[in-house]
Design goal:
Elements: E1 41-45, H1 47-79, H2 100-103, H3 105-110, H4 124-155, H5 161-180, H6 193-221, H7 230-260, E2 272-273, E3 276-277, H8 278-304, E4 308-312, H9 318-332
Antiparallel strand pairs: 1-4, 2-3
Length: 337
Amino acid sequence: MPKREDDPLLPNEKAGSRSNHHPQVKDLFSMHSQGNMDSTLNWPVQPETLRFYAYVFFWIMGFLAMALTELVVKDRLAAGPPPGDPSCPPFEMGQGGFDLHTHSHLIRVYGFNNICSNWDYSPAREIVAMVYPLFEYTLILYLVADFINVAISYQKGWVSPRYYRVARTLFPIMLILCSWFRMIFVILVYEDARGHTAGFLGLQLTLMMVACLNVWYISETKLEYDILGGRRGTQIASLIYLVCDLAVSATKFWLDVHVVLGYDYPSWGMKPVGSLVVGECVDHVWMLFNAILPLIISYVRSQKEQPLEITIDLQAPKYILQRIREQEKEANEPPVP
């Protein structure tokens, strides 16, 4: 006999919707009177909030590393290797201790220190590595949530097929490159500066792709922010940010890729600019556009844009559906005279 249209065992039908048609289902949950077959888990998720927290965790990681370096690491490096082991890494035979601020391994390669030098040495490296997953996982969650937002926007016709195809292609690449940033804690700078820097190149590429996709998304969906002067101001500000960010990011990438490919750091990157060198200036500007401004931008966007609405439901177990079917059968049987 064919199944009725309201048969609870029909495929692709949510069991939760059966409670309205079968009040006797409540009897199955007599031990849990608060149960409701229509209940679901509903979470509002704002991708930009995830990005904001990712940057917060990054700066927590950075400030922790700076504190550990100043309080512990700096003095340990200056004191030199332990007695009887003059070549114990990161020390070299016959050289003794060194000043982190003037003779670190990054300075020997690049000519200057950057924020990474604060977690290059023990015990800062090990402690910061335990905090690092907060940054990495939150950033990956942002990438996932943002792609879901793009996919839904495409389904609703808010973004073009071209934009969606590009975002869909770059999404797995960004996930991989972002996860490879952890290699800065695996490949030590005083053992292999090339491999140590390679992991950082992946993050640089990821952040460039994120910036491009975000500005493109703002243009496609015609987002506007009053703080930037409405739609026209938003378009102009986002384009200026993107051009400046790509310019400094491409320059930094070009400088760093020399080290990864085994070449010496470009001589023009070592040219002095006041008390700094060119490469150091590029690094500072890069931090502004990729670690400070995104923190502010993500916060503003998280307050102005609508979140994703994630609903999680669960099909009723088979034994419950079978019990419903049995109760329906009993209810439809004619009474015994």
